[in-house]
Amino acid sequence: MSKITQLPFEKPIYDIEDKIEELKMLSNESGIDLTSQIETLTKQAEEFKKNLYNNLKPYERIQIARHAMRPTFLDYVKNITTDWLELHGDRAGTDDRSIIGGIARIDNQPVVLIGTQKGKTTKENLEYNFGMPHPEGYRKALRLFKHAERFDLPIVTIIDTPGAYPGMKAEETGQGVAIAENLLEMAKLKVPIIAVITGEGCSGGALGLAVANKVYMLENAYYTVITPEGCASILWNDAAYADKAAEALRITADFLLEQNIIDGIIKEPLGGAHYDPELTFVNLKNVVVKALSELSQLNEQQLIETRYDKYRAMGALNG
Amino acid sequence: MSKITQLPFEKPIYDIEDKIEELKMLSNESGIDLTSQIETLTKQAEEFKKNLYNNLKPYERIQIARHAMRPTFLDYVKNITTDWLELHGDRAGTDDRSIIGGIARIDNQPVVLIGTQKGKTTKENLEYNFGMPHPEGYRKALRLFKHAERFDLPIVTIIDTPGAYPGMKAEETGQGVAIAENLLEMAKLKVPIIAVITGEGCSGGALGLAVANKVYMLENAYYTVITPEGCASILWNDAAYADKAAEALRITADFLLEQNIIDGIIKEPLGGAHYDPELTFVNLKNVVVKALSELSQLNEQQLIETRYDKYRAMGALNG
Amino acid sequence: MGIKEWLHKKREQKNSSRTINTAVIDDEVGKLWTKCFNCGANLPAKEVEENLHVCTKCGYHFRINAKERIAQVVDLATFEEINADVVSADPLQFKDLKTYKSRQKDAFEKTKLNDSIITGIGKINGEKMAIAVMEFAYMGGSMGSVVGEKITRLIEIAIEKKLPVVIFTSSGGARMQEGIFSLMQMAKTSCAVAKLNKAKLLYITVLTEPTFGGVTASFGTLGDIIIAEQGARMGFAGRRVIEQTIRQKLPADFQTAQYFLKHGQVDMICSRDELKEVIANLVRLHSKNK
Amino acid sequence: MGIKEWLHKKREQKNSSRTINTAVIDDEVGKLWTKCFNCGANLPAKEVEENLHVCTKCGYHFRINAKERIAQVVDLATFEEINADVVSADPLQFKDLKTYKSRQKDAFEKTKLNDSIITGIGKINGEKMAIAVMEFAYMGGSMGSVVGEKITRLIEIAIEKKLPVVIFTSSGGARMQEGIFSLMQMAKTSCAVAKLNKAKLLYITVLTEPTFGGVTASFGTLGDIIIAEQGARMGFAGRRVIEQTIRQKLPADFQTAQYFLKHGQVDMICSRDELKEVIANLVRLHSKNK
Ligand SMILES: [Zn+2]
Ligand SMILES: [Zn+2]
User: In this structure, are residues B250 and B316 in contact, taking their beta carbons and an 8 Å threshold?
Assistant: First the structure.
């Protein structure tokens, strides 16, 4: 694994770790025994880390969720499935690369897998449009949803998007109606739908793949009606207040679980998925396999009704 | 009505009529009584007309079918329906003007009406792309087919097209798959479908709206797998042999009725629909109303099965 | 003041204003003179109002509030409002420069509504239907829990009573102050539309100035028939956001009703005076034996 | 010569050619040397054949005939041909510069087939399925009554036996010589696919060089999964017709498999050596308990 890019709030950790390295070198060079000092410092570093990562502020989680080395949809595909075959295109002119879909086995169960894809390099990010789909991406997903339904295959979606792309062409070909139709059609699907938000789950662009029987979030993922930057620039008149907006919007997995917006949280390694992708894959796979097994107990009618009831209950009302 | 443009093969008729006019003028100016000569000539003209129009060669019918003053889809809508409301667009970026659809009443029965539209002026022809649809037109039609199905409305299609547009963009957005999906979905529709070929019924472009329970043709319409010009340029190496190709392809309504490809022929006034559009509207409306009434006797299953059986039987085989 | 009383009062005013020259100035009825944003004409407010708040010079459609809309399209005295008292619980205890609570209070003062939508049952040109009208003046017509709940309940009643549904949208999008609850209303209303589809009941949406964001991306564009009111602008993302993203000026007609018609996303454009008849006609065309 | 005998003979030839240096020259097996259209390399015909008729230098996929295709993808000795004897009745008594009858005769001489398609039941990597392969060498793989009928019968058998269907297309389009009967095969085959859909049986189409016109606009693009073979060209209208219509040169990659993938019209591109495994895998992924 290449060196992990450090986030601003992680600086204290890296500073301590640098110091430990320094002491080790000093010890080696000078022959002075610094073992106990190093041990103390290492312990302190561990404590500090735990404390930091277990008390992340919302905007710090967002930075982890957006980390350039965070596993992408295709990483999950590669590591939790077998027999993957990508199925391209909306059959109407476009193969939007920001939403990728296909068929594969998870723990021997064939499923249709659909996810938003981000890149790790500039070139990849341009190919995948930074994980921001056009309407044609949602239409590709819808085509594959219906394919899954015809062949009685469960659907798993993996979501990590800053939102649907706000562009001219996207308006022209119906960003709004494409998302709306996915919400509608997902409500009607006769097969189990499992959605996992692995990074950014922003706005209608995320929801367009997330009307599901079970919705999970990675521990450091966030799920929100608007990006904190967007919210801050409207309500605080300045995008720089994104951290405040992130607090106010209550975008973290624990709150959303508490409010029954999501059905479970998938553990991440300390510091975030990118510190131990393998562990993240295992954790995510286990949750999905369990959900698949649970949902396989329901018949078509039950799948539709429980999905409906879930969303019917969402809202915070008086009177 | 503005003056009718004369077709080449009609020249003899117009010549006689000119002569009659001349005699009339002469009679008026000179005071000589030419009544009997005029009567004789008029009778001759009538005889000649009947003889000509009742023995039209295929390529002459094609010229009538293509006549610039032939009634268009919107003429039929205006004259055989009430409460017409056009429904625009494919909900995905395009409102192809070469296929127009909407909802209206025919003889008080609400129906979904869809047709290819040609213009009568250059400006209109550019707007309607000479009645040559892009894939988005077929997708608009499909959307309206499904709308009709949801609300249990019969479908009436009116077809007059030289074919689906052979352009670069049309290939890009899936001319082939758009037509194919219409054939497939029309086979599945649970409501009555009536198709009327009023002018040109060329190739997959026409068939994409014509998989129906009942298919009718106007007397001078033609229905073919390829334009005679296209066929001639391939098989005779010269489009100028279109008349020969038209003969060989057997594209006229009488042959197609005899072969059970179509279900009936709608009478046109002598010389073609454009000589008496009102009569044409009445004839077409009567046939459609009768078909609607007949098909209303069938349930969903019967509609699908009889439609299937109809196409299942088509083909000319030995062994 | 409930809708019924308001309509009653309004009609009284209208009648009285016909006889009295010194017209009462009323926040809702408007000022004595109305300046047209489009052609600049200064017109008697009464003339504009009687013309359905459409400029008598150029046809410009002024934005109207939900009550005015109901007065215009619903047959006299047939509208029965439902669920008027549903209010948001402020689940996030949201606060930016102001609290959500204070914004709600301000919006209530301005509109006398508990949230940005009015729902009820009424007749349009004699056709009984379930009707919802969004109120842009209430926090930009934003969709939070109340909008989602009231639309869902309206659809459930429509299914129960076998009525068609017509919704007049006007919204800037989701209500940020309700965070994820706001987002979930997109799913919730779409699920309700799914049930309506299954019941094969006609669903008409009328997109009025302006309709954006979460409403465009959920129930707003799920109509079996989508009508855009003349002059309305609509879209998913806002114009400014798009211009910032693509670093390019957008064409003048971008996101207008005409643009959406051309790009296949609305079935038709209706001027305000056509709406009643077209809606009623659509309902009749989609009903058996009518 | 039936398929079985042909396959048998071919295998014998193959075995014998391994030992004998003076290889028999056979129309079907090809000449001793094959020149690659793409890279120009002169390659031993046997080497190219053993590489599935793919250039060993550049990967160029040579067009192969239907029998060769069956030999490549269907498991040894599992192919049972059906409806081999169906022939066209020449319903129009068609004649251009030549009669249809004489063209049929020539095509038969060239291909030893009664029409442009072979259908049957066989196994691909152990998975039993209904298989159709079009033969471009028979009148450009054009679709007339026989193609329509044989595909329909194949689908009917698949439904009866609950088998998936895979069709390898290769066609210039409709068979003009059968006029309207040819056009109607588009409707007929699409109706058959509708029945297959209803039976929830998997339908895979493999578009091979070239696939155009009526086949693209009917059963060819109705696959639940659409595979394009590497190097294939496909489309609705032909390149020349389009260039004449739009009076413009078309880009080099126009209507290639890559172009169709980019434009969302095929699910994937497979090289010839991947086909067997991908098809079998797809069947297994779409079958319960596999
Ligand atoms: Zn004005
Ligand atoms: Zn080569």
Answer: no
Which one of B88, B96, B138 would you mutate to disrupt binding with C, by most C Cβ within 10 Å of its Cβ? B88
Q: Cα D282 vs. chain centroid, distance in angstroms?
A: 19
Nearest alpha carbon to residue B318 among D90, C250, A302: D90
Chain-chain contact of B85 with C285 (C-beta, under 8 angstroms): yes
Degrees, nearest 5: CA angle C131-C135-C137: 170
Chains D and C touch (3+ CB pairs under 8 A): no
Query: Coil, strand, or helix at residue C131?
Result: strand
* pLDDT of the residue at D232: 97
pLDDT band at D11 (very low <50, low <70, confident <90, very high): low
Mutate to test the interface with A, among D265, D274, D276, D287 (most CBs of A within 10 A): D265
Residues D195 and D234 in one domain: yes
Which structural domain, as residue segments, surrounds residue D40?
A: 23-62
What is the reported pLDDT for B2?
A: 62
Separation of C274 CA from ligand 1 center, angstroms? 18
Tokens read off for B66 = 């293509």
User: Is there a single domain that holds both residue D202 and residue D149?
Assistant: yes
Q: Report yes or no: B22 at the A interface, CB cutoff 8 Å.
A: no
Whether residue B89 and residue C288 make contact (CB cut-off 8 A), yes or no, is no
- Structural domain count of chain D: 2
Q: What does pLDDT average to over chain B?
A: 96
- Report the CATH number that the domain containing residue C136 is assigned in CATH: 3.90.226.10
Q: A51: CA distance to ligand 2 center in Å?
A: 63
- Residue of A113, A124, A182 lying closest to A154 (CA atoms): A113
Nearest to D55 by CA among D66, D76, D41: D41
**Chain B neighbors (3+ CB pairs < 8 Å):** A, C, D
By percentage, how much of chain C surpasses pLDDT 70?
Answer: 89
- One domain for residues D99 and D46: no
The answer to whether residues D56 and D90 belong to one domain is no
Within the 208-247 window of chain B, which residues sit less than 8 Å (CB to CB) from chain D? 208, 210-211, 223-226, 230-231, 234-236, 244-245
Question: Phi and psi at residue C65, in whole multiples of 5°?
Answer: -85, 170
Shared domain for C99 and C51, answered yes or no, is: no
Evaluate if residue A1 carries a pLDDT over 80. no
Residues C111 and C234 in one domain: yes
Which residue spans within C49-126 are E strands per DSSP? Answer: 80-82, 87-88, 117-124
Q: What percent of chain B has pLDDT over 70?
A: 99
Structure confidence at residue A154 as a pLDDT band (50, 70, 90): very high
List chain A residues with CB under 8 Å of C193.
Answer: 184, 187
CATH number of A62-312: 3.90.226.10
Distance (angstroms) between ligand 1 centre and the Cα of C56 equals 7
**CB B191, CB B303: distance < 8 Å:** yes
Report the SS3 class of residue B80: helix
Top residue of D227, D234, D285 to mutate, by most chain A CBs within 10 Å, is D285
Strand extents, DSSP E, A205-261: 214-218, 222-224
One domain, residues D115 and D215: yes
Distances (CA, A) of B82 to B85, B105, B107, C266, C268: 9, 5, 8, 22, 18
CA of C30 to the centre of ligand 1 (A): 16
Using the structure block, give the residue that is written with the tokens 């979030």: A217
| Closest chain A residue by Cα to residue B175 | A92
Confirm whether C290 is domain-assigned: no
C100 and C42 in a single domain? The answer is no
Give the pLDDT score at B217: 98
Kindly determine whether residue C266 and residue B152, on different chains, have CB atoms separated by under 8 Å: no
How far, in Å, CA of D172 to CA of D140, rounded?
5
The verdict on a CB contact (< 8 Å) between C187 and A179 is: no
Token pair in block for residue C30 = 């408007």
- Which residue did the predictor score with more confidence, D32 or A298? A298
